[in-house]
Amino acid sequence: MKTLYLIGGTMGIGKTAVCQQLKKDLPRSVFLDGDWCWDADPFFVTEETKAMVMDNICYLLNRFLHCTAYQNVIFGWVMHEQAIIDAILQNLDTENCIVHCISLVADEGSLRDRLRTDIKKGIRTEDIVHRSIARLPLYHALSTIQIDTSGKTIRTITEEIKAVQA
Apex CA 124: angle with CA 149 and CA 101, to 5°? Predict the structure, then answer.
């Protein structure tokens, strides 16, 4: 039986770091970052590009789910609306799979601190702070397991996620 982890959260919450650590911690794991399926410059958000990214994501996740080399498939992306999660799941072959839908959340101060650190490193631009904080409340309305990352290490967060499967 495979396990699929859908890990969502607003920008800067720690999705990539958590998913990368999970990939190391869980046996026979593969990680797909949704941003890799839509890395363009300029970045256009249209009905066509939204459909394209969903097709890309579902195609790759299904390939990972069907590949016998992998036991754990980890997907990280913003996923701030239930409709996004539902659309992904509707297009995946999860018949022989346990699915864990998880949202990483944090208090506003912790998120702001993480984003400021990324801005100082040149990883993100200043406009991310408002956009990311504005999305934070959306995660509380989702049908997902919520894991508060405020003041926690990546290791602590991944241990909480691994405990979900127990």
Answer: 35
Q: Which two tokens stand for residue 159?
A: 């241990």
Q: How far is CA 119 from CA 41, 100, 150, in A?
A: 19, 31, 19
Q: How confident is the model at residue 43 (pLDDT cuts 50, 70, 90)?
A: confident
The domains located in the chain, with CATH, are 2-164 (3.40.50.300)
Residue 20 in tokens = 């990368």
pLDDT digit string, tens, across residues 68-122: 999 999 999 999 999 999 999 999 999 999 999 999 999 999 999 999 999 999 9
Please calculate the CA angle 114-136-90 and round it to the nearest 5 degrees: 115
Distance CA 37, CA 53 (A): 6
Q: Whole-angstrom Cα distance, residue 7 to residue 11? A: 12
